[in-house]
# Entry
Amino acid sequence: MQLLNTTPETLRLTAFLSLFALLAVCEALWPRRPLTVSKSRRWLGNLVIVTLDALLLRLLLPLAPFGLAAMAQTNGWGLFNRFGVHGWPELLASLLLLDLIIYFQHRLFHRTPLFWRFHRMHHTDLDLDVSSGIRFHPVEIALSLLIKMAAVLLLGVAPLSVLLFEILLNATSMFSHTNMRLPLGIDRWLRLFVVTPDMHRVHHSVIPRETDSNFGFNLPWWDRLFNTYRAQPREGHDLMAIGLREFRELDKLGLRHLLLLPFISTPARKPL
# Structure
């Protein structure tokens, strides 16, 4: 009964903190790769960034997707509300369509020079672990939220579906970035249903054609369907270099530099 009275923000924060702690313990017990950079330094920066993200969004966009979904449901806005699609069909369709939209959003952020300026901060992490899954520039988070809000309004996604999707997206983002070793047999089976750490690690390779692959955060099907799936990195998981070739100096990857990174001029990325 107490759970029913819990706010969506509290549920999301509880799920985030619980899973973050669990995955941090798992990757400490079963690491996939040795870390090359001070973990405390990286974690401090990444945790400060996610805190800034949360504060900025609360200030600039107080009407979160959950609140917008409630308004759409009350007023009959969106395709699902217009055609009376509710219950399990609406939930499953919403989770699939929102995840597909996030997949294409991710590809857009790689291919559009303006969006890439903000997204590349996520790719400058020289190691990957659970904290990398929350390392996104505040402007990118705001842009992503606007896209999700537009999708929620257009589709008429129910509030519960929005809440579940937000929790799942946050959980799978942390899981897919985790520096946790999974048995190869389990990884091969698991990546049929969810993006695994070994699958997503390829996306953080310094090799551009590997960076431009495995865009999924949650479901792995879109990469296979749209021909952006790459099973393994060329150099292997133990030897592959993480990050971007143009940002390798630690003294230029501090918090202040990361926040100003979008305004640093670098050569534009070539389209696929």
Residues 8-263 form one domain.
